[in-house]
Amino acid sequence: MAGTDDEAVAAADDALYVLTAVLLTPAQFPSVLGDDYPEACAALGLAPHADGYGLVLGQDGYGARWTVVIDDVSLVAVAIASWDCGMEYELSPDEREVVAALPGWPLAVAVSAPGVPAPHDPDPDVADRPALSPPDTSSWGPAQRRLGADEIALQWAAWREQINDEEFAKPDGEGKSDGQEKAEESSAESEPGVPQSGHRGVRRVLAEARAYVDSPPPLGRVRSSFAPGDARTLRADGPGWSIVARTDDIAFVLLDDKPGEVLPVGRGRELPGLLEALDKLAVRPI
């Protein structure tokens, strides 16, 4: 039996106009939300289930922002892959797959649904929790540092071609006097982008990353993804730092306490072994 006009209007208002979707899994999650998978889940109030989630971001018929969390990760993965290839794909999760409907968006979305009011947070009366909002990236901090690492991973070739391997210091101050090492640290701290594997902050980061091998970190702190040839793109994060590396090449380090700086680390004697060990414990996309 056909519904009434009022029922049709109500259904239209409750419908979600999908704008985009992202994966929230141990191997692929919006790193702006946290250094690891459990931290990213906590930002949305979700339990860090091993299988992960799909996040569907859209607007309702009133224009309000909603994030629908579903447990069908493969459905969202197919939709994202189709969109990336320029293909149309209607992402319409079944109600049985919905884990939660969260007010707001945890990420910035540059588009909006046509024919509905401009994006805005839902009325507090219809939401059972404060609305999600994207992390503040207007100033340097953990979120901006992680976004910077994302950009290096995506644009590896452009960043790599800026580095002359002959400029790298010998790893860990090998063959240098204490005075030489201190002078180089001072130079690295005053000149953004100078390649210095002997930089005090870089040495600390490498030591903390090395500790992951003996004491595995929270899920998602170390991730491995595709790279050309037989290499892998390796991403590791920790308190105040991010590493982006190719297993057959160098690494880049970003630090919370070095705003906007990218510190390259040469292969040396220790980096290849460290990257190989980290890759073995890293989570990988299915």
Question: How does this structure look, described?
Answer:
The chain has helices at residues 5-14, 37-43, 73-84, 142-154, 156-160, 178-190, 200-214, 271-281, and strands at residues 17-24, 53-59, 65-70, 98-103, 222-226, 232-238, 241-246, 251-255, 263-265. It folds into two domains: 5-126, no CATH class; 142-281, no CATH class. Strand 7 (241-246) and strand 8 (251-255) form a beta hairpin. A five-stranded antiparallel beta sheet has the order 5-6-7-8-9, with helices on both faces. The protein has a four-stranded antiparallel beta sheet with strand order 1-2-3-4. 30% of the residues lie in helices and 19% in strands. By secondary structure, it is an alpha+beta fold. Residues 115-144, 166-201 are annotated as: Disordered. It comes from Streptomyces fodineus.
Entry summary:
With 286 residues, the protein is an alpha+beta fold.
User: Mean pLDDT, rounded to whole units?
Assistant: 86
Please indicate the count of domains.
2
The topology string of helices and strands comes to HEHEEHEHHHHEEEEEH
Taking the sheet with the most strands, its summary is: 5 strands, antiparallel
Count the strands? 9
Which of globular, elongated, flat, extended, rod-shaped describes the shape?
elongated
Distance between termini? 44 Å
Which range best describes the helical content: under 10%, 10-25%, 25-40%, 40-55%, 55-70% or over 70%? 25-40%
Strand order of the largest sheet: 5-6-7-8-9
Computed structural class: alpha+beta
Count the DSSP helices. Answer: 8
This entry's quaternary arrangement is single chain
How much strand content do the residues show?
15-25%
Low-confidence stretches: 1-12, 169-194
The radius of gyration over CA amounts to 22 Å
